Amino acid sequence: MERTPVSSSNVSSIGYDADSQTLEVEFNNGAVYQYSGVPEYEYDGLMNADSKGKYLHSNVKNRYSFSKL
């Protein structure tokens, strides 16, 4: 999945596949996680958030199943 670099103290890049509703997040420490069943509005909200880390923590983590790649 192609990811877009973002400006964040915790997140390096973010990708999204609308067909499978898969959100992919690369953290600054190199870890990459895929979150499943994420609606496109969550991806849009994440990309537009002032703090990517806070948005991710509040709206994505513990709400959607994930796997570490």
Chart the SSEs and their pairings.
Blueprint: E1 4-5, E2 11-17, E3 22-27, E4 32-35, H1 40-48, H2 52-60, E5 66-68
Antiparallel strand pairs: 1-2, 2-3, 3-4, 4-5
What does this structure look like?
There is one protein chain. This protein is α+β, with helices and mostly antiparallel strands. The chain has one domain (4-68). The chain is 26% helix and 32% strand. It has a five-stranded antiparallel sheet with strand order 1-2-3-4-5, with helices on one face. Helix 1 runs antiparallel to helix 2 (52-60). The protein is globular, with a radius of gyration of 11 Å. The termini are close together.
What are its keywords?
alpha+beta, single chain, 69 residues, five-stranded antiparallel β-sheet, 5 strands, 2 helices
Q: N-to-C SSE series? A: EEEEHHE
Strand order of the largest sheet: 1-2-3-4-5
Helix content: 25-40%
Rg for CA atoms: 11 Å
Class by helix and strand content?
alpha+beta
Number of domains: 1
What proportion of the residues form beta strands (DSSP E)?
A: 25-35%
Précis, in short:
With 69 residues, this protein is α+β, with helices and mostly antiparallel strands.
